[in-house]
């Protein structure tokens, strides 16, 4: 409050000085004709006075600034002490609250962690059980793969496997009467083809023509070709492809020589390759399939191709059977037509007899009506009298 009063007094003093300067300036203007020396003296006195006022103002301002700084410092210390005490109290309360919250959180975290650990351990145990089961299945699968490798590494077992696969396809599509197994297709030869399709034919004494189908599986060459492709070895791929081409050509010549015998067989045979991968590699060799068809009359087929071929043959069998049955159906229709005339005569006779019977029934109905009208004129007896006269019992039966 004292500082504010001092500032107010200082402001009033400055205002008074300014007012005095203004008055002097007016006096100077009104006294233009006075002695200039006197005015200079007055100006010097006024300047001296202003210097005194400035020094007083500076000393008073310095004193007031020191007092203000001291008051601000005192207030700052007091405020700092008060804030420090309040912060200390708040810190104590916060620590207590945090301890309580920490205890609750620790309890919940411990419970949740225990539950999660139990669940995870259970899942891990289940996963380990499934892993052990999968390892067992993998071990069995590995054994099966080894057995398959041993099977495919043997030439005889490879042939049996291809033959079984071809037999399964034939069994799914055709009936047993439409093909033969291990048939001799060439006259004067003892070589037996694995399967021979019976194509209906009017030539020959058997009534059908054989279509020879033989399975081939050069698994050793195909395995070397796949290994070279996996290693990105173009030279190995080229060598294996060349060897595969030579093997397929040799097998095609063998099938053509052993099993094709026109007109006992068709003028071509089929070489069945049991895997689509092997079939694709054979088709990838340029000109090989065309050479086999043109030079040896042997068509190369994979599982999908042989299925399509057999399906088309089955449709042909159905059409041929339908054509054979159509003649029998025409004979049956002719017999039915001849018997239908007799059946129509019998129907006319029955109709005439029914008309006569109907006329007789109408005559009987007419006579019954006449008798009933005549009977109405006769006096009626009581029920007991009529029963006694006709000897009819109470139950309606005759005594």
UniProtKB/TrEMBL annotation:
Keyword Coiled coil: yes
Domain of life: Bacteria
Keywords: Coiled coil, DNA recombination, Membrane, Transmembrane, Transmembrane helix
InterPro entries to which the protein is assigned, alphabetical: DNA_recombination_RmuC
UniProt-listed Pfam families: RmuC
Listed transmembrane segments: 7-25
Gene Ontology BP, a term: DNA recombination
Statement: the UniProt record of this protein carries the keyword Metal-binding: no
Family: Belongs to the RmuC family.
Primary role: Involved in DNA recombination.
PANTHER family: DNA RECOMBINATION PROTEIN RMUC
UniProt-recorded name of the protein: DNA recombination protein RmuC
Lineage of origin: Bacteria, Bacillati, Bacillota, Clostridia, Eubacteriales
């Amino acid at each position: 409050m004292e500082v504010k009063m001092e500032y107010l007094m200082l402001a009033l003093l400055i205002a008074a000085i300014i007012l005095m300067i203004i008055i002097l300036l007016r006096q100077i203007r009104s006294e233009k004709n006075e002695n200039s020396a006197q005015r200079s003296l007055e100006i010097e006195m006024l300047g001296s006075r202003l210097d005194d006022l400035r020094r007083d103002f500076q000393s008073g301002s310095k004193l007031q600034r020191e007092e203000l700084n001291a008051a601000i410092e005192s207030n700052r210390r007091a405020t700092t002490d008060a804030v420090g005490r309040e912060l200390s109290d708040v810190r104590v309360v916060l620590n207590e609250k945090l301890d309580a919250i920490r205890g609750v959180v620790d309890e919940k975290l411990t419970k949740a962690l225990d539950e999660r650990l139990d669940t995870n351990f259970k899942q891990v145990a289940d996963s380990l059980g499934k892993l052990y089961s999968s390892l067992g299945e993998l071990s069995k699968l590995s054994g099966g793969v080894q057995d398959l490798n041993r099977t495919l590494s043997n030439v005889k077992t490879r042939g049996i496997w291809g033959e079984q696969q071809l037999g399964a396809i034939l069994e799914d599509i055709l009936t047993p009467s439409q093909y033969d197994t291990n048939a001799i297709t060439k006259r004067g030869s003892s070589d037996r083809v694995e399967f021979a399709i019976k194509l209906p034919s009017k030539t020959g004494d058997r009534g059908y023509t054989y279509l020879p189908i033989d399975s081939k599986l050069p698994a050793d060459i195909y395995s070397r070709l796949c290994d070279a492709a996996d290693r990105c070895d173009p030279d190995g791929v080229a060598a294996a492809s060349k060897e595969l081409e030579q093997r397929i050509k040799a097998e095609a010549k063998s099938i053509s020589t052993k099993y094709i015998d026109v007109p006992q067989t068709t003028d071509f045979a089929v070489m069945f390759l049991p895997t689509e991968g092997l079939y694709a590699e054979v088709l990838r060799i340029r000109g090989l399939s065309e050479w086999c068809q043109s030079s040896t009359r042997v068509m190369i087929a994979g599982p999908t191709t042989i299925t399509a071929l057999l399906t088309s043959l089955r449709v042909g069998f159905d059409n041929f059977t339908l054509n054979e049955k159509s003649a029998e159906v025409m004979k049956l229709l002719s017999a039915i037509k001849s018997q239908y005339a007799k059946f129509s005569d019998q129907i006319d006779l029955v109709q005439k007899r029914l008309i006569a019977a109907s006329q007789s029934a109408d005559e009987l109905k007419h006579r019954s009506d006449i008798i009933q009208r005549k009977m109405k004129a006769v006096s009626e007896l009581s029920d007991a009298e009529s029963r006694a006269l006709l000897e009819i019992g109470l139950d309606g039966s005759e005594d």
